[in-house]
């Protein structure tokens, strides 16, 4: 046992003797406080059993070590201060050189049987071994505790949520007639002290603390409880950057994919890839949120609706691709495969005539002009070669225009595919412009 000594020495002048020397042990010996003194340890410290022991308690927040949504756990590091009066302890400070307070091991006197109802894991950190005792019997016990407690978390607005976690303190066996538990300071003062003392908040920002007295009745007996409610706000920046924005970017990519041609297979593969990326993010969300919740989290609604829109977009793309492929197959069945073209004979003749009347007449004039120049420039023996080349080019030009005319003639499947694609794009864009502002307003207010 550590014993502190107080020496009061007054220097002697011309043979005057020194004053009385006092120690803390004199006070302990006067009170007969020892580890074997059951009188101070066994029973509640009151001279009349009908008088309740009043326990005044403060609880200050040092740090928020964690709030785990998956296990509904709140882990704060708190400092507690308890004050009560032991009516069996008193002394006159004037008899002991003015000593009004002593520090003794906590095992030497009675301590209230205080427990924290939400604690699910016992604190294994070293505890303060001493109590502070005043000459009027006032006992003060200060200690710091790392709590691992349960907390009913509401993750409806995750990650823009505000949580309220309770720390309920009460006696284990003493009813309200035996022990009264009262706050030592008011809520505003404790909030101010906690904000000044807090060292670490991590993902959470401590807002304020409130205090309430409750009575718990079991089997006709009433226990008094003191409830400290910690109000914390989550800092959402990390979740916004790592989760919400990537999903929003994938949604923008899916919207941009409507500008990819439907005749090519890249659009379908692109949409499938984006949908798989959203699925991976949903697996990450499943690891963050608890399995059970009173309300569906808004972030889950946000992800599910975006996933549904993208899935519907993929199904529409499959339908449009099918209709276009069907149109191509029907066209191929009607066409005659002839050298130099893909249309049947009647369509080709009609297209060539229309193309000739509209656009090939200048080409014919140019060919005739080039023929005249060739006849004037080259020898008669050589000009027929170039004439054959020009005639072949002319045929190729006619064939190309005929094929273009065939491609312009689309079937009903292609027309329906185009209409469906345009209508769904308007629906998709309108749904996104309505859904995103609505859910963000509900999130942040």
Features:
445 residues; alpha+beta; Acetylcholine Binding Protein, Chain: A; Methane Monooxygenase Hydroxylase, Chain G, domain 1; 3 domains; 8-stranded mixed β-sheet; 4-stranded antiparallel β-sheet; 8 helices; 23% strand; disordered N terminus
Brief description of this entry?
The protein is α+β, with helices and mostly antiparallel strands and 445 residues long. The protein has helices at residues 24-31, 187-197, 237-256, 266-288, 298-334, 345-377, 380-408, 412-444, and strands at residues 53-68, 73-85, 101-105, 114-116, 119-121, 130-134, 138-146, 148-150, 162-171, 179-183, 204-218, 221-234.
CATH topology of the largest domain: Acetylcholine Binding Protein, Chain: A
SS-derived structural category: alpha+beta
Mean pLDDT: 80
**Helical percent range?**
40-55%
Shape: rod-shaped
Give the count of helical stretches. 8
What is the total number of structural domains? 3
Strand content: 15-25%
Q: Which CATH architecture of the largest domain would you pick?
A: Distorted Sandwich
Elements, N to C (H/E): HEEEEEEEEEEHEEHHHHHH
Please, what is the CATH homologous superfamily of the largest domain? Neurotransmitter-gated ion-channel ligand-binding domain
CATH class of the largest domain: Mainly Beta
By DSSP, the count of extended strands is 12
**Biggest sheet details:** 8 strands, mixed
Radius of gyration: 45 Å
List segments where confidence is low: pLDDT < 50 over at least 5 consecutive residues. 1-17, 336-345, 347-360, 404-408
For the termini, the CA-CA separation is: 58 Å
């Amino acid at each position: 046992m550590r014993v502190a000594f107080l020496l009061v020495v007054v220097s002697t002048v011309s043979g005057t003797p020194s004053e009385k020397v006092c120690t803390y042990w004199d006070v302990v010996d006067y009170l007969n406080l020892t580890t074997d003194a059951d009188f101070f340890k066994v029973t509640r410290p009151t001279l009349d059993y009908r008088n309740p022991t009043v326990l005044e308690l403060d609880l200050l927040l040092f740090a928020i070590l964690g709030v785990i949504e998956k296990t509904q756990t709140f882990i704060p590091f708190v400092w507690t201060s308890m004050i009560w009066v032991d009516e069996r302890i008193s002394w006159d400070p004037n008899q002991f050189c003015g000593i009004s307070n002593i520090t003794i091991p906590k095992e030497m006197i009675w301590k209230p049987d205080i427990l924290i109802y939400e604690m699910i894991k016992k604190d294994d950190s070293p505890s303060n071994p001493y109590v502070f005792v005043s000459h009027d019997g006032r006992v003060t016990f200060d200690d710091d505790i790392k709590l691992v407690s349960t907390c009913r978390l509401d993750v409806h607005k995750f990650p823009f949520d505000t949580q309220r976690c309770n720390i309920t303190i009460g006696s284990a066996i003493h009813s309200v007639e035996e022990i009264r538990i009262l706050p030592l300071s008011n809520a505003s003062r404790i909030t101010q002290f906690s904000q000044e003392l807090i060292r670490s908040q991590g993902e959470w920002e401590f807002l304020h603390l409130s205090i309430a007295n409750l009575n718990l009745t079991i089997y006709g007996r009433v226990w008094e409880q003191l409830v400290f409610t910690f109000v914390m706000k989550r800092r959402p920046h990390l979740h916004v950057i790592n989760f919400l924005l990537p999903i929003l970017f994938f949604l923008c990519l899916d919207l941009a994919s409507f500008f990819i041609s439907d005749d090519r297979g890249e659009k379908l593969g692109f949409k499938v890839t984006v949908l798989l990326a959203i699925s991976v993010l949903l697996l990450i969300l499943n690891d963050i949120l608890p399995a059970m919740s009173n309300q569906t989290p808004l972030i889950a609604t946000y992800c599910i609706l975006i996933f549904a829109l993208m899935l519907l977009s993929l199904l529409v793309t499959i339908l449009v691709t099918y209709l276009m492929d069907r149109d191509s197959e029907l066209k191929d069945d009607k066409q005659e495969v002839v050298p130099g073209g893909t249309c049947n004979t009647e369509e080709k003749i009609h297209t060539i005539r229309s193309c000739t009347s509209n656009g090939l007449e200048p080409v014919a004039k140019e060919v005739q002009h080039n023929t005249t120049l060739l006849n004037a420039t080259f020898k008669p023996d050589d000009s027929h070669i170039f004439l054959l080349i020009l005639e072949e080019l002319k045929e190729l030009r006619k064939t190309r225009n005929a094929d273009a005319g065939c491609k312009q003639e689309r079937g009903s499947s292609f027309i329906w595919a185009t209409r469906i694609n345009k209508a769904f794009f308007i629906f998709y864009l309108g749904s996104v412009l309505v859904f995103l502002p609505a859910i963000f307003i509900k999130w942040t207010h």
